[in-house]
């Protein structure tokens, strides 16, 4: 399966995000999803077959890490996509904080409802 097709699925993109900077074992990855371990294992296989993650086996555990070098330009795209989402989240958090501060100030001045 081609790399772009592999990352078209949202769970696979989330798995890549989880293993972007950290190596995680399959069990730790699976714990973060509300699907079966088998389903996560299938997603990991697709990512591995597409060359997007590396696999290291230690005893009975399998550890995965994003292979950014093998991704080429796709790595920069994914990283910018996640950065954009984080920027939006930060803006929403700041707006909510400003709204709460304004409401508290209004209540302190006796103009609250």
UniProtKB/TrEMBL annotation:
A Pfam family recorded for this sequence: HTH_5
Keywords recorded for this protein, A-Z: DNA-binding, Transcription, Transcription regulation
Domain HTH arsR-type span(s) in chain numbering: 1-93
SUPFAM superfamilies to which the protein is assigned, alphabetical: Winged helix' DNA-binding domain (SSF46785)
Record has Transcription as a keyword: yes
Signal peptide: none
Domain of life of the organism encoding this protein: Bacteria
Entries under NCBIfam families matching the protein: HTH_metalloreg (NF033788)
Entry protein name: HTH arsR-type domain-containing protein
Lineage: Bacteria, Bacillati, Actinomycetota, Actinomycetes, Kitasatosporales
């Amino acid at each position: 399966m081609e790399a772009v097709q592999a990352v078209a699925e949202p769970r696979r993109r989330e798995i890549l995000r989880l293993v972007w900077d950290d190596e995680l074992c399959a069990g730790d990855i699976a714990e973060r999803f509300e699907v079966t371990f088998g389903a996560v294992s299938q997603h990991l296989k697709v990512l591995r077959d597409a060359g997007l993650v590396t696999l290291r086996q230690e005893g009975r555990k399998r550890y995965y890490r994003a292979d950014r070098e093998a991704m080429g330009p796709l790595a920069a795209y994914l990283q910018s996509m996640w950065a954009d989402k984080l920027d939006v989240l930060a803006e929403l958090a700041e707006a909510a904080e400003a709204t709460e501060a304004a409401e508290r100030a209004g209540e302190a001045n006796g103009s609250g409802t």
